[in-house]
Amino acid sequence: MLPPSRQDYVSISLAGAGAGSYNNSKQWRRQSCWRKWKQLSRLQRSLILCVLVLLFICGIASYPTVTEHIRGNALCAAHPKHSSLSVSLKLNTTGGACLFLVFRKKLSNRRGPPVLQNRLHRRGNISDPTLHEEKSADRKKGEDKGVISLSLCVCVCVCVCVSLIVAVWLEAVREAFRHAWRGYKDFAWGHDELRPISKSYSEWFGLGLTLIDALDTMWIMGLKEEFEEAKAWVASELSFNRNVDVNLFESTIRILGGLLSTYHLTGDTLFLDKAKDIGSRLMPAFNTPSKIPYSDVNIGKGTAHPPRWTSDSTVAEVTSIQLEFRELSRLTQEPQYQASVAEIMQQVHKLDGKLDGLVPMFINTNSGQFTHQGIYTLGARADSYYEYLLKQWIQGGRKEDQLLEDYLQAMEGVKKNMLQKSSPNGLTFVGELSHGQFSPKMDHLVCFLPGTLALGAHFGLPADHMELAKELMETCYQMYVQMETGLSPEIVHFNMHQGSVRDIEVKLADRHNLLRPETVESLFYLYRFTKDHKYRQWGWEVLQNFNKYTKVSSGGFTSINNVRDPEYPSPRDKMESFFLGETLKYLYLLFSDEPDLISLDHYVFNTEAHPLPIWPASA
Ligand code: DMJ
């Protein structure tokens, strides 16, 4: 059995009027109640309102049945214990179902209901069995109807209450975003990343990375004012004509992807023009002997190069830029973007060195061959290769069979070589392989996989992908729950030996949390496809812990060094752009009830959570 999830009951304290002098006037009492009410959190107020509404509706719905019973009980006072109606309400804001309603209707053991029996008794007509049975049947029907309508009302009430609570969670994500944005605006405006503790910024490419990554999130959250400010900066300040080296993969997924999705959501050609500009400036990266791109490009000079210490590129990096460049070709009707990234997929498809569809982590830009062979992971340096096989297939209208075959083969490879269960609780996890040796190590990055598997199953891939997605989702959740801060570390190791005390171990060097999105990303997919409320509940717990351990009061959120020390999680003084681009966006979409807000039948998310359209059949 897994340990029970954290139970955060909402405590509502209405005791004691405080230290002030006692005054029991009506007006004082009214003011005091009002003040108490205002002091409650939004969640607490919503819960109280929920309970009141629920009780009111239950009261109205059960009125006829209850009065009937009261009459019945009055008439059959000799047998009061035979008939009872009980409605009990248990409210738990963190348990799986959120609200549990137990409605119990205990019918009398006697053949006729009490009212009828008494009437018959009084009339001295008790010996007429036909009349007795007919009336008894009528009565039973009436009672059943009452029970059904009451149950219906209770269901409606539960739905209303759950929606109210989730609306509060949705607003809490918006508030977290606003807080993050405030910090960025005050101390890092126009720079790449906020350093919230030192109230300054860090530069990676010097292109306003956080601002661009966050554009579509603001649009989706309806933060119009913030969006307009950011748009004005893009229009007047953002220039790619700069003598800077940028990483091809990172600038493609964050900048090109962010601009393309914002263009699609808003229809504003400003973003398309900027996307074309950065897209064309990244093209020199593909001028290599093998056509496998270099990792770095100088977007001002138009030159590209590998990192100083190697001529290798990372497999995940060169195979996770396809959605963006394909879309750029479709929009501009210029084929070179799509051709360049398709060439990479063709080559990787044919390469030796795979294990059951699993790829090594590095590829050489001169030879076009895999290097560092024999090491396989679903984590850093390989992760999004698998994600983009499936997502390209979806983007292109599910016609490109080779992509699908590679994806299906790789997932079989995962099942055959990388899946194991932990001890003592049997959590399913994805480990790593090094020259035939299995290592029970799993990066938080691997938590993209439940979402990707679920997405495939949604588009008709084998149903067991969905089952595996659910198992892995539980594991990723446990990577949070089992830490003292309720936040996952960067890397975990699972115990596999019989008799282990705990499933998850964390090495000292792996205890950091960078505000990464993968788990909430998968929660979003799992909730969309299953509608199981527990996934929202888990997302809410994660958000609360981000608020508790990573929020910086002067604005922004910070990565932390130690998820195992709730007393001093040790801030790292950096807010990654993906916290706004991905983590908060997925949380918002997880809690949103708008069915068409980025429908997964019309959009596919790039690996930085920027939604791009699924191409229409004619494309
Ligand atoms: C993001 O930039 C992307 O999600 C990428 O695919 C992996 N790393 C970060 C988030 O963890």
Automatic annotation (TrEMBL):
InterPro entries attached to this UniProt entry: 6hp_glycosidase-like_sf, Glyco_hydro_47, Glycosyl_Hydrolase_47, Seven-hairpin_glycosidases
Organism: Gouania willdenowi
Source taxon at top rank: Eukaryota
Active site: E250, D383, E490, E518
Binding site for Ca(2+): T607
Any single Pfam family the record assigns to this protein: Glyco_hydro_47
Record membrane topology: Single-pass type II membrane protein
GO biological process, one term: carbohydrate metabolic process
GO cellular component: endoplasmic reticulum membrane
Name of protein: alpha-1,2-Mannosidase
Gene that encodes the chain: man1b1b
EC number of this enzyme: 3.2.1.-
Cofactor: Ca(2+)
One of the record's GO molecular function terms: mannosyl-oligosaccharide 1,2-alpha-mannosidase activity
Signal peptide start-end: none
Subcellular location: Endoplasmic reticulum membrane
Keywords recorded for this protein, A-Z: Calcium, Disulfide bond, Endoplasmic reticulum, Glycosidase, Hydrolase, Membrane, Metal-binding, Signal-anchor, Transmembrane, Transmembrane helix
